[in-house]
Design brief:
The complex is a heterodimer of chains A (275) and B (343). Chain A is of the alpha/beta class and 275 residues long. Chain A contains 11 helices and 11 strands. The two termini of chain A are 31 Å apart. Classes of the chains: A alpha/beta (275), B mainly alpha (343).
Amino acid sequence: MFERRHRGFLIAVSVLVLAPLGLAHASADRVVSINLCADQFLALLIHPGQLVSVTHLAGVPEQSFVHDRIDGLYINKGRAEEILALDPDLVVAGLHAARPAVSMLQKLGVEVMDLPIPNSFADIRAQTMLLAQRLGVEGKGRALLNEMDARLAAVRHRPPSRRRALVLGANGFTNGTGTLIDEVLKGAGLRNVAVEDLKIRGFGQVGLEDILSADPDLIVVNQSTNEAPSLAGAFLQHPALARFADRTVTVDPSLWTCGGPFTARMVEYLNGAAQ
Amino acid sequence: MTSVSPVPRRTGAKPWAAWLSAGLAVLLLVLLVVSVAVGTVPLVLIDAVREALRGDATTAALILGEIRLPRAVLAALVGATLGLAGASMQGLLRNPLAEPGILGVSATAALGAVLVLYFGLSQMFAMALPLGGMLGALVAVMVTYGLAGRDSSVLTLILAGVAINAFAGALTSLALNLAPSPYAALEIVFWLLGSVADRSYDHVALALPFMVVGWLMMAGTGRALNALSLGEDVAKSLGINLPMARFRIIVGTALAVGAAVSVTGTIGFVGLVVPHLLRPLVGYEPGRLMIPSAFGGAALVVAADIVTRLVPASSELKLGVVTAIVGAPFFLYLIIHTRRLMR
């Protein structure tokens, strides 16, 4: 069942999708994605053939969960003219990205479906089913969600011993209330230090002194190990954080970038790491 | 010095000039204590010091020892470098407006450091960072003195500084835009305005050896600068080895300022303001001005770093913001006062 706040989300998505169409769905034999998160949903839901093109980021292992499933697809850079040349039935975009290209495509009569950023597992369920319905693959969508829910349920019976976790990214950015990562931590049986001790809403920044005085049991690093050098990235190398070295875990970065049915794997991983 | 010292002492020299350094050192110490007492987490300083000295890895001891102390120490070291470099450059160029920031030395040092850091060289070997900064600094110092050799007009130097600053700033921005890291472009603020926030002993260790060598090279030129203040011919007739003094200040400035900027970004106006405020107190002797300027520069940057943490803003102020708010009006005031020289 969807809770109330998610029903609003569902309606918003429905309106975005259905408004230009009336109620009847056009066919979706040629689907193009111009957003990394849409790439991942589509690669999981439909097969090459129906999926014509994905973004250049979809093939980057550090960013994309589906990097090994996109062989033979046309790689686009999200520009309106190259998308148009692909003659798509449906273009799936991110709600907050590539807006000029989206409005151009819409003006030219192409159906564009916008994916908002999911902030909870309920959002992921809603998004998966909406896409699956539009693409005519409800069964596949349901199967993906069943697998996700099974993974989440299995973890629920294994409470971890290390309870207080803090997510840390470049420049000390962390995830507070209302974010998918907060739900991931809860799902893994962890308590989010950013919420409980540091009172962070949404995305926020924490300083070194705050981290030391909050003294989390587990630090979850949101940064890939082979990232290009920057001062922001060097934040996590500060010697004051050395004491956390034996309780720091790094999550596969391809799971961070977008929320999707695969986010359940992050919950599994964190639950395992905190045992 | 024995009585045969060839360099004349000016009669206006204050006998208590040495006390000035001592007084500034005490001020610096007080500011360092204040600096480690200020931060986001409230600490009982005495307890934290006791725990840190005992070697306990308590949270308070770590915050004091690993976060606040290296930051304060680095601020002091960089401030001393900028103060000393300002005093040396003003003495050598006999120009009250000379300073690493205004002449573009800091800006080219930042460019050198940026090129080394963001394109992976400093990941391969850490020393590349200060080396990049020093190489960058050397370019600007050479250009400056090259110009000063032929035409020592104040205006020429300042305008050359404007050009070097603009060029180095643009190239720094370009390098950051081309850098592979998605964060690089946002970090232009650090390189243009400077900060010691979240710096560690690693940064102190990288920069300190070069800063010390630079200080020693500059500090030994006091007598030459005193003689030079009477004119180049007089200095030569007094047996001063001017090319040697010039070399020591050029290389010393490049080493110290280059290393400092490579770990803190550019912090402007320190080398301008401090020697100026102290000059009357040392009887206008460039040689005597150097050590007090080092202590004064250190005190100014530590104080500015305290201010960056006291202003309630969503993110900390940058150091260069504070020093420019103090320094830029001062610079204007100096320009008005030295207008006669500029013609």
